[in-house]
Design a protein that fits this description.
The protein is elongated and about 55 Å long. Helix 1 (5-16) packs across helix 2 (20-39). The chain has helices spanning 5-16, 20-39, 85-93, and strands spanning 44-46, 50-57, 60-63, 70-73, 76-83. The protein is built from three helices and five strands. It has 97 residues and is of the alpha+beta class. 42% of the residues lie in helices and 28% in strands. The two termini are 21 Å apart. It has a single domain (17-58, 72-97), classed as HU Protein, Chain A (Irregular). The strands form two sheets. The chain has a three-stranded antiparallel beta sheet. Strands 3-4 form a two-stranded antiparallel ribbon.
Length: 97
C-alpha cells in the first residue's frame, strides 16, 4: 500500500509536535515549491534523497490502440527521478534480511 499525503502529514505532525493543520500547511508549501520549480523547467535536487529532472520528449509516431490508426504524438516534457546514492544504499540495506 502506498504512503499518502495524509499519512505524511500525520507523520510530520507527530515527529515535529505540530498540529495537523501546521503540518499540512508545511507539506502543501513544500509540494507547491516543487511543482512550480518543475513546471518552470528547472531541475530539483534534494541532497540525500535524489534529483527530479525535467526532460523534453521529441514528437514521435504512435498508434491509437483502439483503432490502430497511426498518429503523431506531440512533443512533451516529462519528469524523471534519480535517487541519491544514500537513498539507494538505504533501500538496499533494508532488503538484506
Amino acid at each position: 500500500m502506498a504512503l499518502t499525503k495524509s499519512d505524511i502529514i500525520e507523520e510530520i505532525s507527530e515527529q515535529l509536535n505540530l498540529s495537523p493543520a501546521e503540518a499540512k500547511h508545511s507539506i502543501e508549501s513544500f509540494l507547491e515549491t516543487m511543482k512550480s520549480t518543475l513546471a518552470s523547467g528547472e531541475d530539483l535536487m534534494i541532497s540525500g534523497f535524489g534529483k527530479f529532472q525535467v526532460n523534453e520528449k521529441a514528437p514521435r509516431k504512435g498508434r491509437n490502440p483502439a483503432t490502430g490508426e497511426e498518429m503523431t504524438l506531440d512533443k512533451r516534457r516529462i519528469v524523471t527521478f534519480k535517487c541519491s546514492g544514500m537513498l539507494k544504499d538505504q533501500i538496499n540495506e533494508n532488503n538484506h534480511e
